[in-house]
Amino acid sequence: MSDEVLTLENISYGSTEAAPLINRISLRLCRGEVLWIVGPPGSGKTTLLEILIKEKKPSSGKGYFLKQPLFRKISLSRQRLRRQISVICQQDSLFPHRTVIENVILPMKIAGVDSQASRLRASEAIRQVGLVGKIQAQVATLTPNESRIVTLAQALAKLPPLILADLNSCEFDQKVIVQHLLRASTYGSAVIFFSRQRPQEVPLLRSNMEVSLA
């Protein structure tokens, strides 16, 4: 099985060819690798994230997730893509009237993970992120920061091929999110962080890369 998770080839997006918001981005990300997409506000980070989750279509270029085309007429649907990845951003995809553990279990249930195994993995992930005291609480009763940490727990329990983390929308929890997702990469998930800048304490290593949109 190939280690390649995501490939982008000359992705551009914008209203005019003369001044596109995103201009010919190419990258290749494999399992266990970490990529930082950095740049100031307005540089195109959110737009690139929206392209990756198929909320926007690029003006030109090709993309592949696990060798499946993303932007052709016949390609991987947005719904199927979202079932296979995890996204940590401002708009958390949680069910407010379900409990924390129910929300963490749900993505694994959809993926066909055994119910006993999914409950064990969910409980461990909730423990790791420090929400044991809220495990049976309804998400509607949580603070916005706690809700984002539930989304982090979903990613840790599911360990999908690809995790996208928009740190611009969750600055309060940046250190917690970065710490746990760097650990998730050691278990095989490819991780992309979207941030104004890479934290100084996170060095660039062979599997830890950076692309600037400035």
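the 2nd protein, sequnce then structure:
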Amino acid sequence: MWDAVNQIKDEVKQTRNEVENLELVINSQKKASREYLIKSFYEYCKYLESLHMHDVVLGKVKELNEIYFKELGIEIKAVKKALNNWISQKRNNKSEAIADMSNTITLELVNTLKLFQQENDLEYKDGIYGYYTCEKLRAYMDQAKSD
């Protein structure tokens, strides 16, 4: 009887390991797919910029930002406040602060995100509040919550 129990335990352990390995593969594929999409979108926007289609690019950036804000569950106002904290601490120039504190994606927000991405050496300086920008801005968001 104990042999059967031990055999079942071993099978459960083996199955658990197989599931964990599959999850690792799936997660790496998701990340690779997301990276490909981000890079493709960035290249597409650069192409549109070269054609001087700035309004189209801004519209696409705003649309993608809306998706990320919803996906991340973060209010636009919170990001604006965090960016203003960053500006006051790192840039030390209050005139660069975001004035429109509405819950709306504005050109001012996009440009400030681009500046933040540039000064924090993020790969994409596109004004999109994606995962990498979110991670870099997190410390300033925590400060914004406590203010």
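The chain has a mean pLDDT of 85. The chain has one domain: 2-146.
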